């Protein structure tokens, strides 16, 4: 009955948005209240659950998304995006630009959380799209597939890293196996699948549409790439330097502070203001006007993401994920496939890859120990399942839809299907690895 209620509530959300054209944020709020009541949450606790869900999502993403939008707008307005597109096309050529995007997304995705990488890479994607009149999904989906797969499969991302500890796996070996599984999944869900999406119309946010400037007006190539990739460099340094320091090092707290994603984005915004703004002849008032316009463009996106967090919190507090896991725990199946399936179903109902992965871990550990399943492969199986079935209760779904200006139907045909492709490819890769290393 619980699963049926979840399905009905999700269907209602889709109908409100797509059929009755209700604003997505308002639809999320209405469905979150109804879902809480239907699942038996105390009515007095539902408002606080919704507020907590919104706060948790925005608390981790608000600074990152707003600062990222400001950076993206400045990259576009200053001509840096145009310069980056010119250099990228000169190196890879128009024919292979997809693979350039995949490589960039993969390298960036290893040290970066998905939400951060998405916000940072969207301006680069759109700069190529606008400059060379290429289909937005054809260019953007391969890069975002790479970001998503690294988020789900590879340490040091939160869910895989936590699974390594819970399953007592080997971090290095899991990363090695993860790379072997991730690369084919990215190729299938990225460049190959994106070729089928050229006809889907996308209207990317105009905020990231770069002005056509003359070569003399453009910033230098080094300045453009350095500013756009500076967040990646800072976060990578902050991830690896602590590994080289003693736990009692006096500089470690400062490294951790400077490596916080929100702090990184603010540092980068200050640097960008100088390099792409003031040194390019822009007045500070003009730069602030650019930043204000960027906020207007993503205000609704923030609200929609907050709404998805509200629904996710209601589902989580209702115990849906634990009930689903209990239903499936006694199913006779290959342990790797069973773990994948549990994670996939929880992801569908709850909307969070991290919650799906960590919830599955608590259920699958006894089974894994009983069957002596390879813990490194179990991490990857759960990670692959946690990427499945992204839809309207997933913040990533709405970020993709709103940034690329897609209809709900086309978001399902592109983003949701891509996520399921990489999830299935990941499972097949894990099962094949089991045969090889057995």
Order of helices and strands: HHHHHHHHHHHHHHHHHHH
State the separation between the terminal residues, measured CA to CA.
Answer: 40 Å
The number of helices is 19
Task: Kindly estimate the percentage of residues that lie in beta strands according to DSSP.
Answer: under 5%
Shape: globular
The assigned structural class equals mainly alpha
Please outline the major beta sheet. Answer: none
How many structural domains does the protein architecture include? 1
Uncertain runs:
none
Count every beta strand, where a strand is a DSSP E run of 2 or more residues.
Answer: 0
Overall pLDDT confidence: 82
Membrane topology: Multi-pass membrane protein
Family: Belongs to the GntP permease family.
Keywords: Cell membrane, Membrane, Transmembrane, Transmembrane helix, Transport
Main location: membrane
List keywords for this structure.
single chain; 438 residues; mainly alpha; 19 helices; 0% strand; globular
What is the topology?
Layout: H1 2-18, H2 24-38, H3 46-78, H4 80-92, H5 97-109, H6 114-132, H7 136-153, H8 158-166, H9 171-194, H10 221-244, H11 252-258, H12 261-277, H13 284-317, H14 320-328, H15 335-350, H16 353-371, H17 375-385, H18 395-404, H19 408-437
Helix pairs in contact: 1-2, 2-13, 3-6, 3-12, 3-13, 4-6, 4-10, 5-6, 5-7, 6-7, 7-9, 7-19, 8-16, 8-17, 9-17, 9-19, 10-11, 10-12, 13-18, 14-15, 14-16, 15-16, 15-17, 16-17, 17-19
């Amino acid at each position: 009955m619980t699963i049926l209620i979840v399905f009905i509530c999700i269907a209602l959300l889709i109908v409100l948005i797509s059929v009755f054209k209700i604003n997505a944020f308002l639809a999320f709020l209405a469905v979150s209240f109804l879902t809480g009541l239907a699942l038996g949450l105390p009515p007095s606790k539902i408002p606080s659950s919704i507020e907590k869900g919104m706060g948790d999502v925005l608390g981790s993403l608000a600074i990152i998304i707003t600062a990222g939008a400001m950076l993206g707008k400045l990259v576009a307005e200053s001509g840096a995006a145009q310069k980056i597109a010119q250099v990228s096309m000169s190196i890879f050529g128009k024919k292979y630009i997809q693979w350039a995007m995949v490589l960039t997304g993969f390298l960036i995705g290893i040290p970066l959380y998905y939400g951060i990488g998405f916000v940072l890479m969207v301006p680069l994607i759109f700069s190529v799209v606008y400059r060379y009149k290429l289909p937005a999904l054809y260019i953007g989906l391969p890069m975002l597939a790479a970001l998503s797969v690294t988020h789900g499969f590879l340490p040091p991302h939160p869910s895989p890293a936590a699974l390594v500890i819970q399953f007592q796996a080997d971090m290095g070996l899991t990363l090695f196996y993860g790379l072997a599984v991730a690369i084919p999944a990215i190729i299938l869900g990225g460049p190959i699948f994106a070729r089928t999406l050229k006809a889907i119309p996308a209207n990317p946010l105009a905020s990231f549409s770069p002005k056509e400037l003359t070569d003399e007006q453009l910033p230098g190539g080094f300045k453009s790439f350095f500013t756009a990739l500076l967040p990646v460099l800072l976060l990578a340094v902050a991830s690896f330097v602590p590994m080289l320091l003693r736990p009692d090092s006096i500089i470690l707290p400062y490294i951790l502070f400077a490596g916080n994603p929100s702090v990184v984005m603010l540092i980068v915004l200050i640097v960008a203001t100088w390099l792409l703004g003031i040194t390019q002849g822009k007045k500070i008032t003009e730069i602030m006007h650019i930043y204000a316009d960027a906020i207007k463009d993503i205000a609704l996106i923030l609200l929609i993401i907050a709404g998805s967090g509200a629904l996710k919190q209601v589902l989580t507090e209702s115990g849906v994920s634990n009930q689903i896991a209990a239903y499936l725990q006694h199913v006779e199946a290959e342990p790797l496939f069973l773990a994948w399936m549990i994670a996939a179903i929880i992801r569908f109902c709850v909307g969070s890859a991290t919650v799906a992965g960590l919830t599955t871990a608590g259920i699958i550990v006894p089974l894994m120990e009983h069957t002596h399943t390879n813990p490194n492969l179990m991490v990857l199986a759960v990670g692959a399942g946690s990427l499945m079935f992204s839809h309207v209760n997933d913040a990533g779904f709405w970020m993709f839809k709103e940034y690329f200006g897609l209809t709900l139907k086309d978001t399902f045909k592109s983003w949701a299907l891509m996520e399921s492709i990489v999830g299935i490819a990941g499972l097949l890769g894990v099962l094949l690895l089991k045969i090889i290393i057995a």
